[in-house]
Amino acid sequence: MFGLGLPELLLILVIGLIFFGPGKLPEIGSALGKSMKEFKQAVNSTETEIKKAGEIAETAETKDTASAGAETVQAEAKK
């Protein structure tokens, strides 16, 4: 986790308590957690869309290749 150990995390927590106070800190943590969750969902949905686009492109390429092969076979059969 970014090379942060227990002492570093405790220092960050103490600084957060000093700046924001004990009442506001849980709200900030909750907002940060929700933001991280939404970010992960956005990344996952983007990855899924990219994979689908790649599969569609592969399917289209295969279809084009098969079509070209069929045309070649038909042309050879007519000779």
Structure description:
This protein is mostly helical and 79 residues long. It is 92% helix and 0% strand. It has one helix and no strands. The longest helix has 73 residues, at 6-78. The radius of gyration is 28 Å and the shape is rod-shaped. The model has no long low-confidence stretch (mean pLDDT 83).
> How would a textbook summarize the main sheet?
none
Counting H and I runs of at least 4 residues, what is the number of helices? 1
Radius of gyration: 28 Å
Structural class: mainly alpha
Helix-strand pattern, N to C?
A: H
Low-confidence stretches: none
| Number of E-type strands | 0
- The level of helicity is over 70%
Question: Whole-Å distance between the termini?
Answer: 68 Å
Overall mean pLDDT score? 83
Strand content: under 5%
Shape: rod-shaped
Keywords for this entry:
79 residues, mainly alpha
Strand and helix layout:
Layout: H1 6-78
Structure described in brief:
This protein has 79 residues and is mainly alpha-helical. Helix content is 92%, strand content 0%.
